[in-house]
# Entry
Amino acid sequence: MTEEKIEFKRISAKASDLDQNGAFKLEIELDGTPTSSWFECFKQPSDLKYPDIYPKNAELAGNTILYYGITQDKLKEKIEWIDKYIQQANKRYSQEVVKRQEMQKKAEEKEKKREATLQRINETLKGI
# Structure
């Protein structure tokens, strides 16, 4: 079983599909393909102060985050905010993964205890 990647970073940004009004599609390429759960964390950042690049408007296509209708004004600031949203998603998602692993471990321990109890009961029944 391959280990799930839980943290991502931007490796490139590219503009495409320039329209007649000067708006374009912004493609943010990540260093891996996130899960839909990670992307939900991205779309709901804990710190949202830059509404021009609102994460809920983004889409995910493989390892690329897509924004439509982006303009050139404050482009560097928009990219910096996307990087912050990625960092926040990494942090929140890693917390979720740790929580999920802890729950799985507890469930496995509970199952082992259940099996040990059954084994003791069956050993007792053999002697009766």
User: Anything to note?
Assistant: The beta strands are 10-16, 24-30, 59-61, 64-70. DSSP finds two helices and four strands in the chain. The chain has a mean pLDDT of 89. The first strand starts at residue 10 and ends at 16.
